[in-house]
Amino acid sequence: MKYYVIIPAHNEASYISETLNSLLMQSVLPDKIIVVNDHSTDTTEEIIDQYSCSHSIIKKINSVSSVTHMPGSKVVNAFNKGFELLDQDFDIIVKLDADIILPPNYFEKLTEIFKDSRVGIAGGIAYEQDKEGEWIRTHPMNRDHVRGAFKAYRKSCFQAIGGLKSSIGWDTVDELLAKYHSYIIQTDETLQVKHLRPVGKSYNSKARLLQGEAMYKMRYGLCITCIASLKMAWKQRSFTPFRNNILGYIKAKKENKTFLVSKKEGEFIRNLRWKGITQKFFSTD
User: Fold this and answer.
1) Smallest Cα–Cα separation from 201: which of 9, 69, 15, 45?
2) 251, 215 Cβ separation under 8 angstroms
3) Is there a contact between 6 and 82 (Cβ–Cβ < 8 Å)?
4) Distance CA 281, CA 279 (A)
């Protein structure tokens, strides 16, 4: 299988060398690596240039955007600029953050996973360092969710979902739309991916309402949004996520934000969410 990797990078001088080294040490090398230098003001570009000069599979593109690190549109816009440079002669397209260390057998194991033609999206499990320096799984996810920091897409699935949405919620709606098109999402517990910077550490404070906005744009409806937000609040032992999500949802509705999915896709998503809610509610585990 041919793997093309796109890495959006904004002020990643502290991490990007480790990310690129982990790619170059893969037992199955990617065929192309596009690093999008997204308006960096540190030495990120110089580091990318050092690698691109030494390794022909690595290419750089410069992108000018906002210096504010907001989840969603900024990273997807950078990804899409990198994607525009690529030909269509690939089997798997990978969106990778610039603060990730992949295990050396990452693409080798993904190749085995993607032999199942039903699999549309695949990836490993994120680990972050605790205060003692131990790598721990700090963000437990369902087996059918791959973190946005390291997502691999089968070409036909990527095309079916219309690529990545330039909006907050892109890394949830992609999986929902993959399921809508009858693909499955698969993670491999043995692929422990090191995430060097914890989620959200670089986000602007204005991002706090965007989760609720995403739920509106995915056509969750207020009831599912409330249930999902209560779950988030319970996990974080704080009422703040619930309040912010509801405020974000209401704000997006008042502003008549553009939906990310069609009415038919939205109906499928709501039914899927209700199915998941009822299964967990009535589960005896």
Assistant:
1) 69
2) no
3) yes
4) 6
For residue 98, which of 5, 193, 20 has the smallest C-alpha distance? 20
Residue 47: pLDDT above 80?
yes
Give the tokens for residue 78. Answer: 């950078």
pLDDT category, 68, cuts 50, 70, 90?
low
pTM above 0.85, yes or no: yes
> Is residue 274 within 8 Å of 224, Cβ to Cβ?
yes
Q: Whole-angstrom Cα distance, residue 141 to residue 147?
A: 8
The amino acid at residue 217 is K
The span from the CA of 6 to the CA of 31, in Å, is 11
CATH superfamily, domain at 3-195? Spore Coat Polysaccharide Biosynthesis Protein SpsA; Chain A (3.90.550.10)
Instruction: List the chain domain ranges.
Output: 3-195, 205-282
Amino acid letter for position 168:
I
Residue type for position 74: K
CB 55 within 8 A of CB 27: no
